UniProtKB/TrEMBL annotation:
The keyword Transmembrane helix does not apply. GO terms for biological process: methylation; RNA processing. It comes from Nocardia uniformis. This is TrmH family RNA methyltransferase. It comes from the Bacteria. Keywords: Methyltransferase, Transferase. InterPro entries: Alpha/beta_knot_MTases, rRNA_Methyltransferase, SpoU_MeTrfase, tRNA_m1G_MTases_N. The keyword Cell membrane does not apply. One of its GO terms (molecular function) is RNA binding. It holds the Pfam family SpoU_methylase.
C-alpha cells in the first residue's frame, strides 16, 4: 500500500468552487432560537464549506458572535430574520422552500435516510435545551434525527447543523 498524498493549498483551491454561491440559492441553515454564540460562528464556517447561507434572528449579541466565529475573515452569507420566526418560516415555505428541522419527533427520519436537497431547503435548528418550539414544529416538512449511542440527549447546534448540512449538500 502506498502512502496517501496530501494535496497542496493551490490544488485544493482549484478543485473548490470558483465563485461565491447565490444567496438563498439552495441551502439555508437557520438556527432560529440560538443559545450560545460560539455555535453560530462554527455553523457559519460550515455554511461556507458547503455553499450555504446562514439565517439568524436579529439579537444584540449575534453580530459579535458571528464575527468571533468567522475564522475565514472574509464576508459570509448571513441573512437576518426580523420579527417573528414563525412568520419568516411561513414565507420560506410559501416561496417554495422545503423546511427540514433537526429534532426528535415521532415522524423524524434518521440522518442516514435524509435525501440530498434537490430544491431550496431551509434547515431549522432549535434551542439547545428546549429544541424547536411547537410553532416551529408545525411548519416543518420533515424532521431529521441524529442517532446517538452515548449517554447525551443531543448534540450542540454547531455539530448537529454541520452533520445535516453536509448530508443535505450531498457531500457525505
Amino acid at each position: 500500500m502506498t502512502a496517501a498524498r496530501v494535496r497542496t493549498r493551490p490544488e485544493l483551491r482549484t478543485q473548490r468552487r470558483q465563485r461565491s454561491h447565490g444567496c438563498w440559492n439552495h441551502l439555508i441553515a437557520a438556527p432560529l432560537w440560538p443559545k450560545h454564540g460560539v455555535n453560530l460562528g462554527t455553523l457559519l464556517r460550515t455554511c461556507d464549506a458547503v455553499g450555504a447561507c446562514l439565517a439568524v434572528p436579529r439579537r444584540p449579541w449575534v453580530p459579535e458572535a458571528l464575527d468571533r466565529g468567522n475564522t475565514l475573515r472574509h464576508r459570509q452569507c448571513v441573512h437576518w430574520v426580523d420579527g417573528r420566526v414563525d412568520r419568516w418560516l411561513t414565507r420560506q415555505r410559501e416561496g417554495g422552500s422545503a423546511v427540514v428541522g433537526v429534532e426528535l419527533t415521532d415522524e423524524s427520519i434518521r440522518l442516514a435516510d435524509l435525501p440530498v436537497a434537490r430544491k431550496r431547503t431551509v434547515m431549522v435548528l432549535g434551542h439547545e435545551s428546549t429544541g424547536i418550539p411547537p410553532e416551529g414544529l408545525e411548519l416543518l416538512d420533515m424532521a431529521v434525527e441524529i442517532p446517538m449511542v452515548g449517554t447525551g440527549h443531543s448534540l450542540n447546534v454547531a455539530v448537529a447543523g454541520s452533520l445535516v448540512l453536509y448530508k443535505l449538500a450531498g457531500l457525505c
